[in-house]
Amino acid sequence: MPDPPPAPLLTLRGIGKSFLGVRVLDGVDLDVAPGEVHAVVGENGAGKSTLMKIVSGAYVPDEGTVELAGEPRAFRGPGDAQRAGIGIIHQEFNLLPERTVAENVYLGHEPVRRGLVDRRAMLDRTGRLLASIGETALPADARVGRLGVAQQQVVEIAKALALDARLLIMDEPTAALADHEVELLYGLVRRLQERGIGLLYVSHRLTEVFDLSGRITVLKDGRRVTTVDTADTTADELVRHMVGRELSSYYPDRAGPGDVGPVRLTVRDAGNQKLRGIDLQLRAGEVLGVGGLQGSGRSALARALFGVSPFTTGDVTLDGRPVRLRSPRTAMRAGIAYVTEDRKGEGIVPRQSVLDNALLASRAIFAARSGRAARTERVRELLAAVEVRAAGDDQEIRFLSGGNQQKVVLARWLALDPRVLLFDEPTRGIDVGAKSAIHDLVRRLARDGAAVLMISSDLPELLGMSDRIVVMRDGRLAGELPAGATEEDVVALAVGNVPETAR
Amino acid sequence: MQIVQRRRLPLRLIRVRPGGVLPILTILAVLLVLVGIRQPDFLDPPSLMSFLGRSAPIILLAAGQYFVIVCGEFDLSVGSLVTAQVVVAARLIDSDPARTWPVVLLLLAFGAAVGLVNGLITTRLRVPSFITTLGMFLILVGAVYLWSDGSPKGGLSEEFRRFGRRAVEDVPLLGRVPYALLVLLAVAALAVLLTRSDFGRTLVAVGDNPRTAELSGVRVWRTRTIAFILSGLAAAVAAILLGGYSGVSFQAGAGLEFGAITAVVLGGVALGGGRGSVVGAMLGALTLELLFALMNFYGVSGALRSTVQGAIILLAVAVSATRSSAR
Questions:
Q1: Are the C-beta atoms of B115 and B229 separated by less than 8 Å?
Q2: With B193 labelled, which of A208, A259, B91, B110 sits at a CA distance of 20 to 30 A?
Q3: Per CB distance under 8 Å, which residues of B are interface residues toward A?
Q4: What transmembrane ranges does the database entry give (chain B) (predicted)?
Q5: Which residue from A306, A308, A363 is facing B201, i.e. has the nearest CB?
Q6: Which residue(s) pair with A455 in the sheet?
C-alpha cells in the first residue's frame, strides 16, 4: 500500500499533551486509512501509549485535533470513543474469565428481548461475528477462562467489532503470544484489513511491524520523527530513527574459548510438576540461552533453580557441592539470583525508592555485617555501574522506564555477588537503547565469571547473546544448539518437527 | 554515563511527596490556630503538657497500628487488648505495690503474645487480618468478662498508676512533664529508629509488593508477624498509661482500635500498605485528639466522636485514592 488512500479514517493533527508540566507529546500528526495497518514504533517513553490513549478517549489532548472520517471529535471518555467506532486491544485483556465468549463480547449491550437478555440471539450473533473474522473454531459459549491467550485476544477483538469498531488500536498484541499464535494473529489482522478496518499497531517487535504494516510512524521523545512506507525502509533505518544513533552491532561478543570456566551448576534428572528429566550443565563465564514456546517450561526451570517452585526429584550441584534449593532464600544463599519476567508483578516494589529497591535483597539476606553505610555505598556504586538513569536514588521506582527499572533489579542482585544468574526475559518491554545496555551487562557479568542462564522469546536476542542454547518443549529439554544456530533450528526444536539434535 | 542526579533540592524537606508528613502538619497547625483563637490558655505549657500526656496512649497505639497497616494488614484487636490488659493488671496486682514490676513485664509479654497469635493466624493460616483481629477482639472481650466474673476485681498499685498520672514537677519553662509524655517520647524514638532499620524498610516493601519481597529473600510471614507483635506491645504500653490515668474498667480500651486506624490513615499512611511514615501516624493521632479537644471547646457533643472518626477515615482514604489515580 504505497500510496495513502484519499479519505483517511483517522486524522490526528498537532496533538500535544503534558503531564504535570512535562511534555509527553508535541505536535504529532498521524493518519490511518480504512483497511490500513499503520504501525507506531518508538522507545519506551516516546509517547506511544499516551497517543493511543488520546485516540481511544482515555486522555483529552491539550492541543491538536482528532478527526474520525473527516469529522472533528472531542472524546470525553473511552465510552465516547467506543461509540464513535474506535476499539482498543490492550496488552492486558479486559475479560471476565467466568463468563462465556458471547457474554464477554456483548458485555454492557446485550441483545434484549422483553426486558431480558436474549441468550440465543447473543450466541448467534457472536457466532456470526467470529465466523466473519474467520474464527469458526472458537465456540461462542465457551468460558473465557478456559481459552488460551491467543483466543482471548480474539474475544477482545470480537468485543470491539460488536461495537462496530472502524478503527482498532492494538497495543503490543503479540507480547503475550507464543510464536505459533503470532501467525494466527497475522491472519486475523489481514482479515480485519479486508473488512476495511483501520489498524493502529503498536509494537516493539520490528519483525511484526514489517510483516504487517503498510506505513510506519516513528515517535521519539513525544515527537513524530517520520512516517515511512514500510516497503521503502529497513529495520536498521527504523532503529536509527527510534534511537537517533546507529546500532552498529546489536550484541556484545560471545565468550571466547578461554572465557568459559569449569562447570558451576549441574542438574541431574530433575523434575517437578512442570518439568521432567532435566539434565543441564552451566559453566562459569558462559551465557546459556533457553528457548522454547510459552509454557514449555522455560520459566518453570528458572523458578525451580531459584527455589520458587523447587525440583521434587533429581539432584542439583553447585561448584561440585550438592545443594537443595527449597526456597528463594536458600537459592540466594547458595549464590543464585533470578531476574523475573514479570517485572511489575514481582520484580519491583513500585512505590519505594530506587535505593530501597536495590537494597531489598541485601537487607533480607544479610544482616548488615560490614556496616550499613558501606553496604548502601556499594549499592549506590552498583546503580551507577549499571547506569541507572533516575532523578535521584530517592525517586520512586515506578516513575522509571522499564529499562531503568530492570537495571535497578539487576543492581539488587549484583549486591549479593551471585555466582549464577537466571534471567527470565530480561529485555521484555524494554526500549531498544536500554536493551543493548542490558545485553552488555549480561555479557559483562559472564565475562567476570558468573554463570548466566537466559530465557528469551526474542529469537534474535537468544541467538545473539547465547554461547549455547537449550530448547525446551513440554517440560523437557528438547535439544541443545551451539552458538551460530539459526532461528529455524530453535523453532524446529521448540515445536518438535525435526529429530532432536544430539548433544 | 553516570546516574543522572538532579542533585537534591535544597527545599527537600518541604517537597510534597505522597505519604509525607506535610499534609498532616498543615492540618495540625490549622487546628492549633483554631484552638488558640477559642481557648488561648490551652496552649500554655501546663495545659499543653497535660494534653500531650493524655494523648500518649492513642499516639502509641497509632504507632503500633502503623507497623501493621504499612505492611498491608489491620489490627482491630488493640482496643479490647488494652481493656484486657488493664483488667488483668488490676486483678494480678491487687493493690500490692511489690507486684508492680512483674505485672508490667507480664503485660508486655501478654501484648506480644496476642500479636504473635494474630500474626501467625494471619500469615500461616491465611486468614485475612481483618477477620483474625476481629476474632481476637471478640475472644478477648469474652475472656475478660469470664475471667473477672462480670466486674473488674482487685486494684492497681500506686506505683503502677504513676506512669499514667504522675509527672516530673517543676521543669523550667514547661512546668509539669507527665511521665506518660516521657514514655511516649522514648517509644516514638524507638519507633522512628525501627522504621529506618532494615526491618522497617523491608516492612514497607512487603506492604507495597509482597511477591517481590518474597522473591528477594524476605520472609514475608515473619516480617508481618513481627508487625503484629509490635502492635501488641504498643497496646501493652498504652494500657499501662491508660490504666494509670483513668483507672480500671471494662471500657478502658473501648473504640481505641478505630481511633488508632483513623489516626494512621489521617497521617497519610496508605491502607493496604506500602506507603507512609510512623511520624505521620503519630501526628495523625495527635491531630485527632486535638480535633476532639477543639470540638469540646466549641461545645460539640462528645457523642459525635465516632461520627467524626468515620468521616475522617472515609475522607482521608477518598482523598488519597483520587490523588493516586489522578495520573
A1: yes
A2: B110
A3: 1-8, 18-19, 198, 201-202, 204-205, 208-209, 211-219, 274-275, 327
A4: 21-39, 51-69, 76-93, 99-120, 127-147, 177-194, 226-246, 252-271, 278-298, 304-322
A5: A363
A6: A290, A424
Residues of A with CB under 8 A from a CB of B: 19, 306, 308, 328-329, 332, 338, 340, 345-352, 356-357, 359-361, 363-365, 367-368, 372, 383-384, 387-394, 412
- Report the C-alpha gap between B50 and B68 in whole angstroms: 29
Residue B119 confidence (pLDDT) above 50: yes
Q: What is the pLDDT of residue B300?
A: 86
State which CATH number among 3.40.1190.10, 3.40.50.300, 1.10.10.10, 3.20.20.150 fits the domain covering A1-85+166-248: 3.40.50.300
Domains A1-85+166-248 and A252-335+418-503 share a fold: yes
* Inter-chain residue contact B209 with A348, CB threshold 8 Å: yes
More confident residue, B189 or A250: B189
Question: Model confidence over A193-239: pLDDT tens digits?
Answer: 988 999 999 886 778 888 899 999 998 878 898 999 999 988 778 87
Mean of pLDDT values over A450-474? 90
Largest CA distance in chain B: 73
Distance between A342 CA and the closest CA of chain B, angstroms: 10
Shortest CA distance from B1: residue in chain A? A387
Ranges of each domain in chain B: 16-324
* Superfamily for domain range A252-335+418-503: P-loop containing nucleotide triphosphate hydrolases (3.40.50.300)
What is the band of A248 on the pLDDT scale with cuts at 50, 70, 90? very low
pLDDT surpasses 50 at B9: no
Q: Which amino acid is at A254?
A: R
CATH architecture for the domain at B16-324: Orthogonal Bundle (1.10)
- How many CB atoms neighbour CB B180 within 10 A? 31
Residue A145, all three cell numbers: 477462562
Domain range summary for chain A, segments of one domain joined by +? 1-85+166-248, 94-164, 252-335+418-503, 350-415
